[in-house]
Structures are given as structure tokens and as C-alpha cells.
Amino acid sequence: MPAVTPPYSPYSPYSPYSSNSQESPNSPRSPLAPLTHEDPQQVGGFRLLARLGSGGMGTVYLARSAGGRTVALKTVHARITADTTFRTRFQLEADAARIIGDRYGARVFASDTLAATPWLAAEYLIGPQLDEAVRTGGPLPEPGVRSLGADLARAIGLLHRSDVVHRDLKPSNIMITAAGPKVIDFGIARALGDDRLTSIGAVAGTPTYMSPEQAGGLEHTPAVDVFALAGVLVFAASGHAPFGGGQAADLLYRVRYAEPDLSGVPAGLAELLARCLDKDPARRPTAAELAELLAPGDGLFEDGLPQPVLAEIARRSALVWQEPPHRLPPPAAEPAAAGVSRRRLLTLTGAAVGGAALAGGGLWAWLANRAQDDSPGAQPPLKPAPTPLWTRDIAHSGEGGEPLRAGGLLVAVAGITTTGIDPQTGALRQDFSIKRTWRLATDGTALYALREPDAPDPAALTVLLLPLESGKEESPVVKLPAYDGTHVLNQLLCVDGGTTYLLAKSAAGNEWFVVAASLQSGRELWRRPAPAPTEYFVTREIPVVVRGKPVKGGLLLCRRADAGDSLTLTLYDTLSGATRWQKSLSVPGAVPYRLAADEDHVYVGAEALQALRLSDGAPAWSFGKGRDQGNPMYGQRRYGIPTVRDGVVYTVEGTRGIVAVDARTGTERWSEAPVKDAVPNGNIAPVASGGHVYTMDSIGLRAVDIHTHRPVWRHETRADTLASDPGATQLYARDTTRLLAFRID
Known about the structure:
Helix content is 18%, strand content 30%. The chain is α+β, with helices and mostly antiparallel strands and 745 residues long. Among the domains are: 42-320, Transferase(Phosphotransferase), domain 1; 335-372, no CATH class. Helix 1 (84-104) packs across helix 3 (142-161) and helix 5 (223-238) runs antiparallel to helix 7 (267-276). It is globular, with a radius of gyration of 27 Å.
């Protein structure tokens, strides 16, 4: 559902209903973000007004029909439209939304799931999600819970009567509006008896509110929705989920075998909800029975809502109808303003420009800052950007793509192969058969890879030593018959000190393990159980572990959730494999493709910039509370993916620019003068050298002087990763078609 999808749903972009901060994380925020120059003017006859959110699968817009109807319009990214399974899911999502209708959901006005860019236009709903409402006003009183539950039971009953199961009912999938609760996001709904989209044995749903039969990979009947709804009502009444939180594997175990925690649930509801949470689906009431048992009367829903929640609905209603923001101008060639000198143009763009033409984002930057050019403290004009050492056309690898330095080569996965490049000249040196970034690792001197699943002799999991000289053959260094070498999501996490660390599937069954193996003996050193990749990761071939990194005291792994915005950090003892600590964090925005850690801490950017102690995972400090971070768009980090160098942590702070924080104390060292001509990109980790911090914004690569705290030059590029040599002597910027190298100090 475009108007009502929760953040990071596997099949939906970020929720458009959480607000954007302008001053602090708790200040009132607008749901609208400006259109970019790449957004179309209209889709399916609806004129686009603003962005409501964007995620890995698509973008949601505020749009208006020719007759004046305002809608939330959801589109799907072009890169996944060729996936017929996804198109089928998108069609089922539209169908399920129509079944629910506008009484218990968002009315669907139009859709075209067969278009080149599939889209769906639905009613624009106003209000917080249930989890936000409980955070705002606390647990609901019993009448409110009963009214909420009765409406939700009637909603899922409509689905069940049409032989559809929602399968992912949870607080973030329920909108609290003035017209009552609305069930949203049908991204993993499934028609009963249809095993084409989710096979028996595959796990789908959210562990916190998942039924035992879902957790066990069994058939999904309407009873799974009743179980999930009971869990939602426990949360609404008490503020906590019935089986707690934590790691997915622990949650799934408790869902299947533990009794629910009903503390805080009113006595009049506890017995009924316990019946709905029975492990045996046959003993649960139907949705229709539950609706009658919860609220046989016809009380008004809003009568059961706390006053702070009603106030929040009213506030959001007022914000929605503000004037849409202006579309962001493109960083493309535009005519220069009359009267601007050639010297002025050269200074602003960093390139030779003839006559009255100003290329790239220079005019945008100049127009944005023109009024401040002569004001006290105005930023000096940017210097010409340095000419790249070289540029190499290279196909993008999809997931990840950060180039690695191995011996005398710069190595990057490019399309269906891995390419070795001369780091000084950009010349191609050799190709390797590896075609997935997560099957490649280096210790800085040698290059290792997992044998591809479709290669000869795939029966065992095999780690190869790849030759860094043309003409030599790759040689196996580790061969583990206990693991299935044919699974595409086996990962080579990292190599360190003669040991290789892997995430691997067992040869029998669907058990997964973190494995350590010796490069010298070729034998397994230890293994520890790990959660299996869910259907979402498997069908899309997305690795579940973002990054493995050797740190002081162990092996640090960062694992992503298939829904929601959480990341799980786990530190394993490198000698025994024992888990030293584990921490789950809420991290909106793109998952970090790089872990920032030093001898003492690992650093994470999210609502704040946090330092976690490597010794026990406990917070050491948090930076950012109460600071002016500009106006980050919802679904984006307030503090970007950080990098640490020489005792200083560097990160993007909202829409303001780079901030430097003392790694030991968490106190500010300095911050960049606010960026006025572009939007800083916190989803790309900066690179720090001796004298500059290099970071990306909506125009290109920006160099910020560490001493003056001001940008000194910008090179226009659409790069999506930045990396440097180990000694930070060369900088590499990679976009979808090119790899560029710059000399840095």
C-alpha cells in the first residue's frame, strides 16, 4: 500500500507517515520531501507533487489526479521490474488492498502492475503507525484496545473470506487515523493454497509477531493472522510484544515453545489473547469470532485513544496540506546568468567553460549561494577540482561494489566477473571468474574467493587463493565437505591472520553457521550456529551479513534484518567462536557497507552517532542529541555511515555536512560550514586523509579541508561508493558505469 507502508518493508519503500526533523529528533516534522530532477512529471495520469519516501524496492509520491484527488502513488524501481515474482506480489498487494477497502485500509483508486514501471495509487492516510502511537501516548486503555482489535479482526476477516492471508500483521503495519485503524502493507500477503510465492519450509513474516507455524516453516492458514493480531493487541495494551525482542533465532524459539508474556494486559483481555496465542492453530478463534468477543458493542474508536495521539493526528493533518516543496533542480548543463565573468565561472565550476555556458551543478551551486556571496563569513568559491588520475569504464556489481586493494592490484567485481586494475594507470590487468562481492576477500596482500556455485566440483565449500599474476591458476586452500558449496548466499566474510571466516549452509538440512577455517591446514577451526537467510534474501540473492571485520578481541559481524531498519552487531571470539556480545540497533537509510572500528569502539550512525565498546558492546558515548541537523528526509540517517582515522570519527550530520567527533570522548572537534548548494549523502562513508575529508553530496565528490572546515573543491559525479588505498594516497569513486581515481594527500 503506497500510503501506508512501514519503513524497510521488503516490498515497500519507507513509510511516508513518519515525520522529518528540522531542529531535533523530537520536533514537528513534515512528511513531504522535494521531487528530484529524475522523478517523472506524472505517472498514470496523476501529477506528482512531492516525495513521501523511497526504499530499496520503490518510491512513494504525493500525487494529484486531473480532477483534484490527492493520492499516495507507489512505483517500483525499474531494476526489479523484470522479476516476474515481484510483479506477481505487487499485483497481489493491490488486490489485497482492494479487498480490505477504505473502511479498514486505504482505498485503491487505480493501478497498473503490467506497466513498464508498475504503480498503484491509493488514498493518502493521515496518522501515526500503532508503534508510534504507543510511544507517543503510552499503552491504550482497555476500551481502546478492544475497539482497535475488533476493527482489525473484521479487516483480516475480509481477507480470509477472499482466501488471502496477510502474514505480516504488526504494529508498524497498522495506521491510527481519525477514521479508525487501517491495515496496511500487503507485500507478503498470499492467496491460500498458492505455493508459488512462498514454499512450505520458507519463513515469511516478522519474528516478533510471527505464529509458531510460520516460525516452523509450515503452511500458513488464516490462524497465523489471528495469532499476530493477538500479539499486536498485547503490544497496544502493555507496550511490549508477547515474546520479547532480541535476535531473530531467539524470538523464533520463544514463539514456538515459550508462553507469552501478558504482564500489563488488562485482566479482561488476558484470557482471550492467551487463547489467540495458543500454539495449536485449531484452538484459536476465527477472525469473526474474535471481533465479537472483543467488542460486541459499537463504541467510537477515537474515544479509546489517548489525547496525545489525537493531537498527533491533528498535527499531521495540518502538515499534509502545506504547499509541496519545489522540485530539486538537476545538476546538468544550464545557461549561465548574464553578467557572470569567465573567471567567476571557472572558479565556481572547477573546469574551463567557454562563452556563457556553465556545465554540471555549478550554476545550481552559484544560484543557491548568490545572495550570500558578499555577506560576512560567506564561503569562498571552490577551487578547480583536480583532474582524475584515470577513469575506467566498469560495469556495476549490484550489491556492494567497493574496490579492494590486494597486493599490487585494485580489485573490483564488475558485472559477472572480477577485474584486476593497475592502481596507478587504471589499465586492466586480469579477470577472475568471481561475480559476487560477498564471495571475495583480501588480507591486503593476497586475494581469496569462494568458488562460484555453478563452477565444477561445487559439492564442498571451497576457498580459493586467486593468483595476482596472469597465467597462473587459482588454487584451493580450504575445502569443507560439511557445507553446501552450491548455495549462492554462502559468504566469505573476511581473511585475517591465516584464518578465513565464512557464513555457510550445512550440506544437510537448512542449518547455517559462522565458520572459521585455517588457511594453512585447510581445516575447520570452529563453527557457531547462525540464523538462516529468509526467503527475501534468497530470492533476491542479497547477502545477510553486511560486513565481517577483524577487530581487537574478535570477529565483528554486522547482519541486516529483512524487514524494518535494524542491524545486529555480533562479536565472536576468534579462538573459540563463542559470542562475546550481541547488539541490535535501529539504523534507517542504506545498510553500512563498511564498519568503522578502532582499538576500543565500533561506531554507528543513525538517529545519533554512537560508539559501542568492543569489550562488551555497551554504549560508550552518543553524539547528536539536541543539535541542529538541518532537515533530513525521513528514511535517511541523521548521522551517516561514519569513518574513523587517527582518533577522530567523521560522519555526515543531517543536511549540514561533515562533523568531526573525538573517538575517545564523543565531543565535537569541528563541523563543516553548512552546505547550502547541495544535499550531503550520509549513506556513503567519507574518506579521511591527512588534510581533507572526502564526502559525497547530491552534486558530486566534495573535499573538505580539515584545518579550515570548509569545502575546497567538488568533482561532479554520481558515485555511490568511496574508498582509498590503505595509506590514503589514492581515492576511488565508483558509480554505475565508471571507476575514478584521484591523488589525495
